[in-house]
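Write out this protein's structure.
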Amino acid sequence: MKTIGPQHYRGEIGRYYEDFEVGDVYEHRPGRTITESDNINFSLMTMNLHPMHCDSAYAARSEFGKPLVNSGLTLAIVVGMTVADVSGKAIANLGWKDIALTAPVFPGETVYATSEVLGKRESRSRPNAGIVTVRTTGTKADGTVFMTFERSALIQKRDGNIDESAGY
């Protein structure tokens, strides 16, 4: 919480560049139960018409015997879960790499995410920011790892001169 006056506080999201330490691990909570509706809506909204995501009769004849959650949705949810801890003060996402999908996710399953800080360095072009790299792991409630990836973001420094008077 940020103090903005006597007995007056404002919630904050994210960390400044200075708050990251290599080796820190963040357990992102709460988890998220992915529903059939989430899966169908996301798949159709993104024009992914693969029947494994939106046709239960088709999916029943597959090796899985039921629909799979669209991997684009699981990636979006896991990245979203990290924002409060990793990129809430980001100026920009710089990229994702080594995205590995290691287990299927099915509608009705609950997912969690954990991120480990792998590296940080001052930005060479922006003195008000630094680059932070994390490895994020998506885990189902039963402990199965279903996704890993690395992500780098340009994170503002505490004295980064971003105008926060607009309520941020």
